[in-house]
């Protein structure tokens, strides 16, 4: 009898402290502390891997990984979510590496984060792109698979509207000269899974 009571007590404790798991696309409203929005259907797996494409003579490698990320509020409450993180590597036509966020990939400083659905059309997926040293400028990178096997995808970059501080090294270029942000990334490109 004593063993039965101990087993029931342990089972109750386990239920109380177990992490609540929700499907990935569940709205994150009134999220219970410690919840986990998990990719139960493997929806994110199609994006994972190394992708390669060319533009203006340059070669772009985009490496995407599926990771479990923790989001913590100021009061210490948190939830976990499966997400795609990524980095890029750009090689010039002469073979010089212009950008390399893949070799020393850091999950805490990844340039790409998502997968999000557009407000008007949730099936249209995009990654948030936060390029390094761009004064917190961000862009959405829309993703569309171009074949049924999902081994080729088209990316379309759209800069997000936000201001530029006078302390930004690109202030004169953007505000005074009226030029675009010098983000080393194509507006449109087709990538093939490697």
User: Would you list the SSEs in sequence order as H and E?
Assistant: HEEEEEEEEEEHE
Mean of pLDDT: 90
Q: Going across the biggest sheet, name each strand in turn.
A: 3-4-5-7-8-9-10-11
**Sheet/helix structural class:** mainly beta
Percent of residues in beta strands? 35-45%
Structure summary:
The chain is mainly beta and 194 residues long. It contains two helices and eleven strands; from the N terminus they run H-E-E-E-E-E-E-E-E-E-E-H-E.
What does this structure look like?
- The chain has 194 residues and is mainly beta.
- 11% of the residues lie in helices and 41% in strands.
- It contains 2 helices and 11 strands.
- The protein has helices at residues 2-17, 171-176, and strands at 21-23, 35-38, 49-55, 58-72, 78-91, 97-100, 112-117, 125-129, 139-145, 152-159, 188-193.
- The chain has an 8-stranded antiparallel β-barrel with strand order 3-4-5-7-8-9-10-11.
- The relative contact order is 0.14.
Topology overview:
Layout (H helix, E strand, L loop, with lengths): L1 H16 L3 E3 L11 E4 L10 E7 L2 E15 L5 E14 L5 E4 L11 E6 L7 E5 L9 E7 L6 E8 L11 H6 L11 E6 L1
Parallel strand pairs: 1-2, 2-5
Antiparallel strand pairs: 3-4, 3-11, 4-5, 5-6, 5-7, 7-8, 8-9, 9-10, 10-11
Features:
194 residues; mainly beta
């Amino acid at each position: 009898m004593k063993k039965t009571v101990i087993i029931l007590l342990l089972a109750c404790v386990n239920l109380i402290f177990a992490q609540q798991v929700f499907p990935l696309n569940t709205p994150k409203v009134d999220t219970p502390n410690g919840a986990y929005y998990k990719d139960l259907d493997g929806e994110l797996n199609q994006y994972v891997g190394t992708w390669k494409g060319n533009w203006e003579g340059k070669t772009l490698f985009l490496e995407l990984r599926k990771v479990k990320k923790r989001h913590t509020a100021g009061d210490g409450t948190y939830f976990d979510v499966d997400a795609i993180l990524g980095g890029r590597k750009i090689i010039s036509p002469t073979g010089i590496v212009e950008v390399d966020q893949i070799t020393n990939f850091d999950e805490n400083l990844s340039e790409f984060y998502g997968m999000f659905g557009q407000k008007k059309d949730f099936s249209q997926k995009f990654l948030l792109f936060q390029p390094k040293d761009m004064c917190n400028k961000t862009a959405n990178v829309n993703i569309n698979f171009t074949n049924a096997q999902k081994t080729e995808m088209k990316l379309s970059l759209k800069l997000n509207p936000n201001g530029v501080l006078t302390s930004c090294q690109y202030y004169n270029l953007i505000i005074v000269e009226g030029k675009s942000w010098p983000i080393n990334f194509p507006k449109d490109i087709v990538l093939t899974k490697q």
